Input
Amino acid sequence: MDKVLLVDSDQAESVKISKKFKALNRFEVLTASDAKSAVDILNKTQISVLISGLKLFGFGGVELIAYMTRSHPETPCIAMLDPGQRKPWFNKPKIHEDILYFVEKPLEYGTLASTISSCINLIHKGLTSKGMALTNFLPLIEATGKTCQADVKTGRKKIGRLYFSKGALADARWEKKIGDAALMEMLGWDSVKISISKLPVSIRSANIEIALMDKIGVSWEKKEDTPDSLPQLPDEPPPDPAIVAKIESSIKKHIGILKTIKGYKGLAILSPNGKVLTADIADASVDFNKFSADFTAILNQSSKTARLKEFEKCSCFTMHTPKGIIIMMSSDVTMSGNYRFIVLMSPDGNGFFMQIQLEKTIPMILNI
Output
């Protein structure tokens, strides 16, 4: 079983996450409260994925992830951003090349589980051999507002240096090049090994004119007002065909009561990212593939917002429109697997009764 190392100064939250994932029986979660303890574990145990907070005792999460590039370059990392820290959005994500992911606190366990699975899937496919690209690491420094020197090495090239003041790039040096010229050379580097140290007092003025985040294709805000700009969801491995076959068989066995409810047009079972695994269609015009991912993103974002406002996880929502009723519901990730259910009904359908029956039916469908 793959081992995952969770490093966070909030031990209560780490224990809670560890217990939830233990019930999944998909990977073993080890915990550490500081970076030094994490390094000790990494030196003794084969770890598949590192999950790290950024505010740690001793040296911080940025330094820990930099350490990973030097000592465990093929191990995917997940950086946990604190509430209020900006999350980088990569305009052109290179899912199979970059091995650093970003998640936001408060954590949504299903999303975190999917991100871990994506990381493990990359390993099993041999897609982490290039290690980390410099462009994937740089947003960490701006997100945390670090003042530091970053020494970067790749292949046989000499070491390049980047100098940051409060997260902003002030200067770059590589061989005889300085400023923008050195930066442009270094931005193409992958398989990088990074070391973080104090900013030298000699670096006082900025020699960089390039807007760094714009250059590497990173933005800090994602508009939420259109379906095309819903929060990005992590890549996930393809579903297990054997499990999908069992779910399809179970739906046929238990869906009878739902199909008798007034207004029923169809039901689909989705992956955490909203990919349709299987569906029952009563109306030929229904195509869940056209909208399931967007409504899944709404449910996931609602859950994140509810946790942030101390209302705990959002497990269901109902939407009424002139063209129909949409009911979205998530399964209990610790008991029934991490799935989303979506039901579409006609506008005059009995949505309230459907929600009650769906809550009863989901455990039966997933009791496979």
Observations:
- Confidence is low (pLDDT under 50) at residues 223-232.
- The longest strand covers residues 168-174.
- The chain has two domains: 3-229, 241-365.
